[in-house]
Structures are given as C-alpha cells and as structure tokens.
Write a sequence for this structure.
C-alpha cells in the first residue's frame, strides 16, 4: 500500500468522551463520506484504521476506531492524518475528475510547450476554474471548460490548456491591459 | 443603507463600453477588469470577464443569476486552498 498514491482525507483532532471515540476533521466533500471508502491509513501507510461513524458535532465527525477502546488510546491518536489509497475512490463519471488526480500535473499549451503545473481547482460561484502555476512563477486561472482545457490525459500525466484570448500568460501582457483600462477610464491608478 | 433606486445600478462606464464593443464585435474574448465594484448588468450575460483579485484574473462567465451582484463577489481576494480529499470537478 505504501507505493500507491494516497490522498489525505482527514485528521484526528482529539478524543471525545471516555469510551474511545475520536473527533475527526474531515476533508471530504461531504464530511461523513470519510468512512465511505473503506479503511484508512496513517501517513506512512503502516497503521490501518477501521472507522465506524457515530455522528457529527461542532463541525467534527465523531467516530470509533477499531482497537481504540478508551480515552487514553484515543488521545494518543491526536494529530494523526488519515489517508486512503487512490484506488479506493470510485471511478468518476465521464468528463469528471478528482482534484487529487489533477493537482501537480504538468500543463502544456496546445502547441506542446510546457507552461507549468496545475496548482488547484476552485469554484468561486462563477463556475469551476483551474489555477496553473506558470514556469515564470506567476499564477494563471482558466475556466475548467472543454475550450480552455481541451485535453486531460491522466495515463500519460499531462493537461493541455488553451487560455482564452484576454487571459494573459505573461506579466507584460497584464501590464498592457492595465494601461489600456486606465486609458479608457481616463485616470491613473 | 441600500442604494437609491432612482440612481440605477452602479457600473464603471469604461467597462460598459468595453462590454458593448465586445458584443458588437461578436467576439467572446475575456474582458479583463479591475472594476470589482461594478454591478453585473443584464447586457453582460454570456460574456466572460477576468476579474482581478489583487493577484490574478479570475474568469467569470456571466449568467442570468449573477445580474445585480458585483463582479468582486466572484473573485475572492482571500482564498484557502484546503485539501483536495474526494472533491471532483467536471468540465463544462
């Protein structure tokens, strides 16, 4: 299991009660899904945690871990990060991608040039966007659409990005845009 | 206190001009803007704006539901990356 890609899905933040229950901060989309994919492991992949959910309280998931029967044992787990193997996640639907699969992938332009790496995906209310860290060290955000991201090859491990006209790739273009806008605005910044 | 209705929604004039030019040209390039304070008007629907958040331009494809909101609402200046966990994204 240690060689497989593992995904951080939660962390034990402390004990709850005297019976060995633990509080877990869940990083899954639905916090209660942390126990939906099977057993979890620690960072090294050596210790396996079999989790049974007890509910949720104050933003944390309350769970019981097999083999942890008292508060002392539960407190000893405080700070433990919980991972699952990528293979434990169900296959996504067509044209649906796990963030964990995309983050860190190299990004190429449509003509094959290396642009940078995928830094993350976000949704700020105007649709999903993908943030790329360019080789120059500057960020570039593009819509996560078929036009802007025409190809995603997880097997070969790359993403092709074709930024829409207007979203500049280099800083100089951004400065030009600022000048244009100020000119039209008729004022200095 | 809410803005008086007789004034109409606030929008920077240069942004409105840019959007109208873009629509007249029939193009769908991203309109970069620093005007986070401008209200999204019905004539912006269908256009894509790159709204600056102090660091980068966040693409905002304007839909009908966004009318009446400000551009800045869709381009947060403080972001918490968090962990990817089991989150999924789908291409539109």
């Amino acid at each position: 299991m240690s060689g497989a890609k593992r995904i951080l899905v939660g962390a034990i933040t402390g004990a709850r009660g005297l019976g060995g229950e633990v509080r877990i901060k869940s990083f899954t989309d639905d916090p209660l899904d942390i126990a939906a994919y099977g057993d979890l492991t620690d960072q090294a992949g050596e210790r396996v945690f079999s989790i049974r959910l007890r509910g949720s309280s104050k933003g944390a998931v309350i769970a019981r871990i097999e083999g942890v029967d008292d508060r002392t044992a539960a407190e000893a787990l405080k700070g433990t990060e919980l991972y699952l193997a990528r293979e434990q996640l169900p296959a996504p639907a067509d044209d649906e991608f796990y963030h964990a699969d995309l983050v860190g992938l190299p990004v190429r332009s449509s003509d094959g040039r290396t642009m940078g790496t995928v830094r993350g995906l976000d949704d700020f209310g105007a649709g999903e966007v993908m943030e790329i860290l360019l080789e120059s060290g500057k960020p570039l955000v593009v819509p996560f659409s078929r036009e802007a991201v025409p190809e995603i090859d997880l097997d070969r491990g790359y993403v092709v990005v074709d930024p829409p006209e207007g979203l500049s790739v280099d800083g100089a273009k951004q400065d030009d845009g600022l000048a244009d806008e100020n000119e039209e605005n008729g004022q200095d910044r | 206190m809410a803005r008086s209705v007789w004034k109409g929604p606030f929008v920077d004039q240069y942004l409105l001009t840019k959007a109208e030019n873009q629509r007249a040209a029939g193009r769908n390039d991203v309109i970069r803007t620093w005007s986070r304070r401008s209200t999204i008007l019905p004539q912006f629907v269908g256009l894509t704006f790159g709204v600056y958040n102090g660091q980068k331009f966040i693409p905002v494809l304007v839909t009908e539901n966004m009318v009446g909101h400000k551009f800045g609402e869709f381009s947060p200046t403080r972001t918490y990356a968090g962990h990817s966990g089991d989150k999924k994204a789908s291409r539109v």
The first strand of chain B starts at residue 31 and ends at 33. DSSP finds one helix and four strands in chain B.
